[in-house]
Design a protein that fits this description.
The protein is mainly α and about 290 residues long. The chain is built from ten helices and no strands. The longest helix is centred in the N-terminal third of the chain and has 31 residues. The protein starts with a helix and ends with a helix. Homodimer; disulfide-linked.
Amino acid sequence: MMMTRGTSRVARLTMGGRLFSAVEGAAAESEKFPAMGVRWRSSLTLGEKEQVNNKNSEDGGNKEVVASYWGIKGEEVEKEDGTPWKWNCFRPWETYQADLTIDLKKHHVPTTFLDKLAYWTVKSLRFPTDVFFQRRYGCRAMMLETVAAVPGMVGGMLLHCKSLRRFEHSGGWIKTLLDEAENERMHLMTFMEVSQPRWYERALVFTVQGVFFNAYFLAYLASPKLAHRVVGYSEEEAIHSYTEFLKELDKGTIENVPAPAIAIDYWRLPADSTLRDVVMVVRADEAHHRDVN
């Protein structure tokens, strides 16, 4: 019995030591990456990793930046021309060229009660959005993409669970919705390079995303058709917002800066592409999501 108590005490001490080391390590990481400006290691480009490694070498350190949340070094990938692939948040086989010929004016006329409920819900949410962001379209796009990436993930998750419960195939919809969520997330990763959110806008994301996630989750459980209609009408509003964004770029109100490198690789854009080209392909993506939903 004495041996059992001693062994138990040693185990507690060992676990406590590990916990302390983990907390201490997290504290050290938080000093390197302040909470309001976090960029995790898995999202760094190769160039940024080299800078970190060079800094560690100068400091006499031996630390290595690992491109994974799990501490496993990611596979090195190359482009078609043999140059190293810079991004860890997506891979070359996930890139594509957007279809700019898609109909931007298509509109699903609300006929049923659910259609009208979805339509007026989206319209009512547009007013406070217009008041808050006004004509700051770069920041508006970035902030709204934090919400736009939620429906595909929620829908894909619920269909995934339904497929498991019923022992049946999903007809390909799980992957479709998850791909939509990933595409919207890449919109966010792109606009992060163009516009930096203010502290109160970052705080707003926590509130809006928390409320919207749960509301959409319950709506999807009650009526998937209603949930998809909400997304479809939201995408129609997104097309309108990006069209206004383009007008401001054409008028010179917003500077037409060079396209972020992440956008050039993700949409396979020419090397001399500009912000206007990025907004064009993002708008085409939103039109595609509108049709799917």
